[in-house]
Amino acid sequence: MAFTSYGDHWRKMRRIMTLPFFTNKVVNTYSSMWEKEMDNVVDDLKHNEGISLKAKNEGFVIRKRLQLMLYNIMYRMMFDEGFESMEDPMFIEATMYNSERSRLAQSFEYNYGDFIPLLRPFLRSYLDECRDLQKRRLAFFNNFYVDKRRKIMAANGGKHKIHCAMDHIIDAEIKGEITEDNVLFIVENINVAAIETTIWSMEWAIAELVNHPEIQHKIRVEIDTKLGGKPITESNLDELPYLQATVKETLRLHTPIPLLVPHMNLEEAKLGGYTIPKESKVVVNAWWLANNPEWWSDADEFHPERFLEEEETTELTVSGGKVDFKFLPFGVGRRSCPGIILALPILGLVIAKLVTNFEMKPPPGKNKVDLSEKGGQFSLHIAKHSTVVFNQIIHN
Ligand code: HEM
């Protein structure tokens, strides 16, 4: 859906995807599952033989475990399926397909032909590689996940109750609203748009928190004072403005999709004295909007307080409401990210659970983790996955 031109097809796809993925009801239905998956991460860091000693002493690369958590969250919502462990062959296969897809899409070969048509013939082998991967990857989703739901839906003379997102989507196919290919592309879109972006943001948030122990402390104090020992759940995130400011500051300084997704104006437009011909590729530099030192004080500092003080008007809205065009990590308007409704609470909960259970520190001999960036065609992610020491906090 993310790359579909604006029009009837996009409208239909967005409508069909909204009910199973992007409503408050979905958040309410699944938030206790998200919390359980996050508690499993905390539990592994404390007690899992293969993880806990490392996590306590030399440090552990947390990305892989968070990746398992997020795959479990998204695959349970999508297919009512989960993965056993980081060694589960299905998990290994799913992550292999998705990271290969990500590598190809991040490549700058991806679009130079759009700008220099003469070079297009040289793209052929790259495009063949993309097509080959797409075929194998979609077959994997279809054979192991979508088909299984089709069979469950067809059992009992088709009287099966809708149980997960895929059932809604297959239902739309049965009603003739979308095709079999559309179903597979929805699965492909969620695998890319939902999982990778959210993991990059988690990695950035954790790395910044490791380098800013005082911010970890402030989050802990806020949780203690505001919740007074109550468990942290999606429904009480509203009571934790400093935690939410930390999530926003992560998305500001490390905008995961810095240029958003390319847009296109259907009609000729006049803007700032320029004529923009119809069907131009319009690229918005959301990173610069969020990091321009003329608009943000100490723009290159990780400083969540800015969202509570000087930048108090800067709001992320799930739907409607006031929008500050300085801060658009999820885009804005019709084509903005519908996943914001899931991504913000998931990020807030993960940070809250890690910070209340552990002091997160750099590995022995280091006083910071490396925050170098690696840019790709679409994303801005951390160059080296951080190794983090997790010192357990004992609660009385
Ligand atoms: C931190 C996490 C995330 C970030 C930073 C992010 C960011 C974005 C951005 C920048 C766009 C393009 C907006 C534009 O060009 O105006 C987008 C589109 C999209 N995102 Fe996200 N996203 C995140 C998480 C998610 C999640 C969790 C889901 C789904 C469960 C999701 C689903 C989508 C979809 C379907 C689109 C295409 C929307 C359309 O074209 O109508 N995203 N996202």
TrEMBL record:
Its main location: membrane. It comes from the Eukaryota. One of its GO terms (molecular function) is heme binding. Its cofactor is heme. It holds the Pfam family p450. Keywords: Heme, Iron, Metal-binding, Monooxygenase, Oxidoreductase. It is found in: Membrane. The keyword Oxidoreductase applies. Gene3D superfamilies: Cytochrome P450. One of its GO terms (cellular component) is membrane. Belongs to the cytochrome P450 family. This is Cinnamic acid 4-hydroxylase 2.
